[in-house]
Amino acid sequence: MKPLLFFLCSTSLLTAARAEAPNPGEPAPDGLSLGALTEAVLADNPSIREARAKWEAMKQRVPEAAAWEDVKVMGSTRVARFVDVSRNSFMDHALGVEQVIPLSGQNRSRERIAAAEAVVALEEARRTELDVLAKARGAYFSLAKEEALLELNRVDESALNDFLLSSRAKFEVGGQSQAEVLTAENEAERIGERQHDLALAESEAETQLKVLMNRDPFSPLGKVVEMPVEAQHADLSVAQLRAVLLANRPEIEIALADVARAKAQQELARREWIPDPALTAQAQRYNDAGQAISELDLGVSMNLPWLNGKKYRAGEREAASDLEAAERALDEARIEGLGLLRDQLEKIDTLTHHVELFEKQLIPHARQELEADQASYESGGATLQEVVLSEQTLWDLESAAREHLADYQMALADLEALIGSDSGILMPKTTHSKTR
Q: Which residue, 122, 131, 327, 336, shows the most beta carbons closer than 10 Å to its own?
């Protein structure tokens, strides 16, 4: 596997004839940088805010689960008596309170279960953030690609119009056939049609970005500011990426939290054999008594789980099976994550090869061929159709190279989402990296 640090400056893919095109690495006054995009998505994306709100809600369950049961207040009073007895033979008024004392620690076990479930919600929120960021960055690179292709197409159209004027001048003096003039005119129409298709793709990428940033789709966005790829990612080894993935991938963290939850559930199943006593204090008053309280009674009550052993043994077996399943799911999450990492690195390596091949071999050769055909045409040795064909070949290669570059950048964005951490692969760390 080649190092990820690989300089892929997109401007080197332009031909000498396209030197008038603006440098995509130069910030535009109203440009959108990758960092600004990341901050906007993290701050305003509805899916991310929804996931964070769910996590905040889950956190509140932890103190709920740890709390003691509510104090019970009991009261009674005589409404009517249908026997003729002494007025002080029965109590007429009673007031009492009851409190269950969690000596078994079941509330602490429930607190650990709720805490583990809150961690799951946190990791699900992180997964949402990572996925949305990867999608937004993919749209960003797609928009950069479409903007670059639009500019290339404009320069192509301008160059072909110059050739068309030259061809018509030659035709008027008999130095050019009408068929070649028609060929140039048809090519100009084809380039103009391609401009509309590229503008549509650019508009779709812009819309996707605005939606992900929670902006009005009809509001202006500005040109994207492309950074050299060498400044976008770090040289991370496979060993480093494995370590980052195992420590940060949300799916693994969710599986770990589920193991913790299952262990707390097993602990709770064992503690359910221990009864929690309920203490009761009751004050009673005779109707004719002069005191406010005639009697004060204290009592205790508890459940007897040992008399229903079948129920609690089944609960223990259920918890043990649940823990085993959670541990197997953790193993699966780890091996699955490593498998995805291997495939993603192979994909990045392949795309690196593609961009390198186009940049160093295919495009330079096509550019030389175009320049040779242009010189030959000026001297009368080549036909306009040959020049147009060379121009089409160069366009196809540069368009494919730009596709490969965008795919490469998207693959890096997907790698960050895969390992679950901003590790400098695309840009400095952002706020969605794991913090707990």
A: 122
pTM (2 d.p.): 0.80
- Of 69-83, 258-272, 417-431, the range with the lowest mean pLDDT is 417-431
Give per-residue pLDDT as tens, 160-204.
Answer: 776 666 666 555 555 555 666 676 677 778 888 888 899 999 999
| d(C-alpha 48, C-alpha 126), whole Å | 8
Range in 26-40, 198-212, 344-358 with the lowest mean pLDDT? 26-40
For residue 296, list its beta bridge partners: 283
Specify the pLDDT at position 90.
66
Structure tokens at 234: 């770090």
Strands 278-286 vs 295-301: parallel, antiparallel or unpaired: antiparallel
Contact of 226 with 24, CB cutoff 8 Å:
yes
Mean pLDDT in residue range 6-15: 29
Instruction: Give the HSE-up count for residue 296: Cα atoms under 13 Å, Cβ half-sphere.
Output: 4
Cβ 420 vs Cβ 248: under 8 Å: yes
CB 71 within 8 A of CB 281: no
Q: Please tell me the distance from the alpha carbon of residue 7 to that of residue 11, in angstroms, as a whole number.
A: 12
Strands ordered across the beta sheet of 91-100 = 72-77, 91-100, 278-286, 295-301
Place of tokens 């004719």: 288
Sole residue written with tokens 């709770």? 268
